[in-house]
Design goal:
Chain lengths: 149, 414
C-alpha cells in the first residue's frame, strides 16, 4: 500500500488536483475513507486551510470521511431503474448483504445504464440485467474467501 | 434496426475502436490532420457554417461559442473543457461514445483546441464511469505515444495535452460553470453568469466547454465540410443526434438518428416499439429535467425548435418510454426526490423549494387521485417561483416535468 505522501506527491501542488488526490487517497485507504491525517497532509501540501479541504470532501457524495466497508455496492434509484423495480432489488440485496461485514450497501443516482435497468455498481464497475445474478454469485465467492483469509 | 451508415456522423462501425490501431483504420485523426493545414479562421468558419448546436441539452450554436472563445483569447491563454459529467437520468450516450470510440472524442478535442488556440484541454468525467475513464486514459496514452498529443503535434507548432479529471458524484457539476468550479478543486457551487465561460472560465481565462457528443461531431465537419454536414437534419438543427431510448420498448439503447425524425419513428423504428402485450402511454423527453409528452404528440420531429414550440425539450436526447404499468405518481415523486437530493444548497429558493415540492407531493400521494390532479397546478406555480428566483439551471428544472405533466398527460395520473 502506498502511503499518503507518496500518493499526494504524484500530483503537482495545485488545487485543481484536489479531487484526484482525494479519490486516490480514499481508494488506497483500508477503511475506504478520507482519514483526518490524510486530509491534514493534503491541506499542508496545497497550502490551504484544512477546513477548505474538508468542505470540498463534504460536498461530493463519492467521498467519505467515515470508514466504509471493503466493497461498496450501490443500487441505482433513478427513474428508469426505479421503473424497472430497483426498490425490490434493493430490498433483496439488503436482506442478503444488509449486515455483511465486507459490503456497504447504498442507493445512488443514475449510473447511465438505463438500457438494461435496474443497474447496480460494485465499486467502479456497473452491472445490469442478468449480470446482477452473476455478480451476486461472484461477490459471495469473493467475500467468502476474504472472510476466511 | 440499425442506422444506415450513410446517415451516421458519430457512431462508427467497428468493435474495438478504443485501440488506436483500429481507430486509425476507421479514419481517426485524418480530420484533425486536415484541420492542421488550415488557418484558425477557416476552422472557425467551418464549425460556424455547419450550424452544429450543443448536444448537452441547451442547444447553443457551437460555432458562435467557439468564435467567442477565440475572440476573448487575447492573452494567448485559453482552455477547452469536455463536459463528460453525464448525470441526467435516462442519458447514457456519452458513456457509450467514450467506451466504444474514445479517439473520436480526442480528435474532437484536438480540433476544438486548434480552433481556439488552447494548449491544454480537460475531460471532466463522472466519477462513476469507471470503464469510460479507463478507456479514455488508455486512448490518451496511446495517442501521446503516437504523437497525436503532446508537443509539436505531427511536426506542427501546435501542442496539446489532455487531462482527465474525475468528478465525485454531483449532478450539478454537469452545469458548465459549476463544472469549472469543481475542476478548480472547489465545491460544486454554481457561478453567477454572465460572465460566460467564453469570457471568464477556468481560472478566469476564456474557456470552451463542450459536451462529448458535440465534440464528436467536429471530425466529420472538418473532414467533409459544413455543407455535407448540413445534408442531414433540418435548417435550424442540422446533423444527427444520439438518442438514448429506455423503458418499456423492445430495443432500448443508443441510436444515431437524423435531426427532424418524428419521435414515433424513433420509438417504433430503432426502439422497436412497445413490448409484447404492452402499449406506449407517455414519454419523458430529455431526462428528469425534461418534459412529458403524450402519445398524440409523438408526431413531432426531434429537433430543438419544433419541440420547443410545443413546450417540449430535446435535452440530452433521452427518450424514456412508459407503458401501461407506469405510475405517473411514482415517476413524479422520483423526479422531485432527485432534485431535492441534487440541489447544492447555495441559493435559498432551490434549497427549500425542491425540498418543499417533494414533501408536498409525498403528502399528496397519500390522498386520492382527484386531489393529486388538483395538487399538480399548485406545485407548478411553486416550481415557477423557484425557477424565477434561483441561481442556476437546477432550480429551473423541476417546473419542466411538472408543467408538462399537467398540460399533456394529467388524465393519466394514478
Amino acid at each position: 500500500m502506498e502511503n499518503t505522501d507518496e500518493i499526494i506527491r504524484k500530483y503537482p501542488p495545485a488545487r485543481e488536483y484536489l479531487l484526484s488526490m482525494l479519490h486516490e487517497l480514499q481508494d488506497a485507504d483500508p477503511g475506504k475513507y478520507l482519514t483526518e491525517a490524510s486530509l491534514t497532509r493534503v491541506a499542508e501540501y496545497l497550502q490551504l486551510n484544512k477546513a477548505v479541504i474538508k468542505g470540498v470532501a463534504d460536498y461530493y457524495s463519492m467521498l467519505s470521511q467515515r470508514p466504509r466497508k471493503k466493497l461498496l455496492l450501490q443500487v441505482c434509484g433513478s427513474l428508469m431503474c426505479h421503473h424497472a423495480g430497483s426498490a425490490e432489488l434493493y430490498t433483496r440485496l439488503r436482506s442478503r448483504y444488509g449486515h455483511h461485514p465486507l459490503i456497504s450497501l447504498a442507493h445512488c443516482e443514475c449510473l447511465g445504464q438505463c438500457q438494461q435497468a435496474p443497474a447496480v455498481q460494485l465499486d467502479q464497475e456497473a452491472f445490469s440485467g442478468a449480470d446482477i445474478v452473476e455478480l451476486i454469485r461472484s461477490i459471495d465467492k469473493k467475500t467468502a474467501s476474504d472472510e476466511n483469509s | 434496426m440499425k442506422t444506415p451508415d450513410a446517415k451516421r456522423r458519430i457512431l462508427r462501425s467497428g468493435k474495438t475502436l478504443w485501440n488506436l490501431a483500429d481507430a486509425l483504420k476507421a479514419g481517426s485523426y485524418q480530420a484533425f490532420e486536415k484541420a492542421l493545414g488550415k488557418d484558425t479562421q477557416e476552422i472557425l468558419e467551418e464549425i460556424f457554417l455547419s450550424g452544429l448546436r450543443g448536444r448537452g441539452g441547451a442547444g447553443f450554436p457551437t460555432g458562435t461559442k467557439t468564435k467567442a472563445v477565440h475572440t476573448s483569447n487575447t492573452h494567448g491563454c485559453s482552455y477547452v473543457v469536455c463536459n463528460a459529467d453525464e448525470g441526467e437520468p435516462g442519458t447514457f450516450k456519452d458513456r457509450i461514445l467514450m467506451e466504444e470510440d474514445p479517439h473520436l472524442l480526442l480528435e474532437g478535442l484536438l480540433i476544438a483546441s486548434l480552433a481556439v488556440r488552447a494548449s491544454h484541454a480537460y475531460i471532466y468525467i463522472r466519477g462513476e464511469y469507471g470503464r469510460s475513464i479507463e478507456r479514455l486514459q488508455t486512448a490518451i496514452d496511446e495517442a501521446r505515444k503516437a504523437s497525436w498529443l503532446g508537443e509539436g503535434i505531427r511536426g506542427s507548432s501546435f501542442s496539446l495535452d489532455i487531462e482527465i479529471m474525475r468528478g465525485a458524484g454531483s449532478y450539478l457539476c454537469g452545469e458548465e460553470l459549476t463544472l469549472l468550479e469543481s475542476l478548480e478543486g472547489k465545491r460544486g457551487y454554481p457561478r453567477i453568469k454572465p460572465p460566460f465561460p467564453a469570457e471568464k472560465g477556468l481560472w478566469g481565462k476564456p474557456t470552451l466547454v463542450n459536451n462529448v457528443e458535440t465534440l464528436a461531431n467536429l471530425p466529420y465537419i472538418m473532414m467533409h465540410g459544413a455543407a455535407a454536414y448540413r445534408s442531414l437534419g433540418t435548417e435550424a438543427s442540422p446533423g444527427t443526434k444520439l438518442v438514448c431510448i429506455s423503458g418499456d420498448v423492445k430495443n432500448p439503447g443508443v441510436y444515431e438518428v437524423e435531426m427532424g425524425t418524428p419521435l414515433k419513428d424513433i420509438i417504433h423504428g430503432p426502439g422497436g416499439g412497445s413490448r409484447e402485450g404492452d402499449e406506449i402511454c407517455f414519454v419523458l423527453l430529455g431526462g428528469a429535467a425534461g418534459t412529458f409528452a403524450s402519445v398524440s404528440q409523438l408526431g413531432i420531429p426531434l429537433c430543438y425548435d419544433a419541440l420547443r414550440k410545443e413546450g417540449l425539450s430535446l435535452g440530452s436526447g433521452a427518450i424514456m418510454v412508459f407503458g401501461k404499468n407506469a405510475s405517473l405518481k411514482d415517476i413524479l415523486q422520483n423526479i422531485l426526490g432527485f432534485f431535492k437530493h441534487e440541489s447544492c444548497g447555495k441559493c435559498v429558493p432551490c434549497r427549500t423549494g425542491t425540498y418543499h415540492l417533494m414533501q408536498s407531493w409525498i403528502g399528496g400521494c397519500t390522498n386520492n387521485q382527484g386531489e393529486r390532479k388538483k395538487l399538480l397546478p399548485q406545485l407548478v406555480a411553486e416550481a415557477r417561483n423557484i425557477a424565477q428566483t434561483c441561481l442556476c439551471p437546477l432550480g429551473q428544472s423541476p417546473v419542466m416535468p411538472l408543467e408538462s405533466a399537467m398540460k399533456n398527460i394529467i388524465e393519466l395520473m394514478d
